[in-house]
User: What shape does this take?
Amino acid sequence: MLKVCLLVNLESRHPAKMLTITTASISPSLPPSATSPPASTTPSTPQTPSPHNSCQPINRRRLLLTSFSTLSLFSFSVSDSVVNARGLLQMPPPRLSNRYFLVRAGESEYESYGIINTNPVAKTSMDSGLSEKGKKQTVRAALELKAMGACERNCWIWPSITQRAYQAAEIIGAVNGVSRSYIVPEYSFLDARGLGAYEGKKLEALSEVYQSDSISSTIKPPPIDDGTPNESVADVFVRVTQLMSILETQYSEDTIIIVSPDSDNLTILQAGLVGLDLRRHRDLSFAPGEVRYVDPGSIPAYKQPASSVYKCLNPPNCN
Assistant: This one.
């Protein structure tokens, strides 16, 4: 029989109040041995309990303090491991777990008319779809991806749910033999940058937006009350960083093609990946239908900024 005794001091000022818990463990009975000697009938002499085997009182306060200390150490180790977990992306990242291609969708119907359209309410409208010129640009992009071997070992295509981006994803998938089950629509993180009061204006007005961007990454376009967001560069940076965190967590050693309806999502994302000052994101502009492989270690030679002083290792906080 195994006897376990636990004495708990309920209150230090009442040491006499003890709680004793006794448990017994009985081993399976064994058949008596034929050669076993008969039990002695001699009365046993009472034994003095050993201090090592006796039950010692446990102070409840000390027990609780010990438990809290143990939990605190456990919590600290878990928090430390979570912070260092893969997928909580910091820009610029020390490494990427996947291979990425950035694609701007071809020209949209609105762009063919020379009109700015960034209101998410209309993003699934056919007017936000590809123009005839945009479809040709997207076919060229799909063929370029095929020539680059983007989907040789299969790939995932992550387009914005915006009509022109999703149409582009379907064209890319068809040309590269990618099943529709590998096209994952993104519902918010890849929306075209909201330009507020510039909504409905001519495309030429974008120069004013980029002039503000070059001053500070936190300047927002003027607001408007039709539901169009007015996003700063820093706002878009938060979105695309969240997207990359999801992709880096969900996939490993895969190829992912990100399809955006506009250029700003991609330029801000690439600026963050390579450590370029976000105020200079326009230097990395994407033409409609342009494809670019993500190399976090360098900026494409034809997009190099005029001066290296525009490096930023803690975006969007750049001086």
Notes: The beta strands are 2-9, 18-25, 57-59, 99-104, 156-159, 255-260, 291-293. Residues 1-37, 74-85 have pLDDT under 50 and may be disordered.
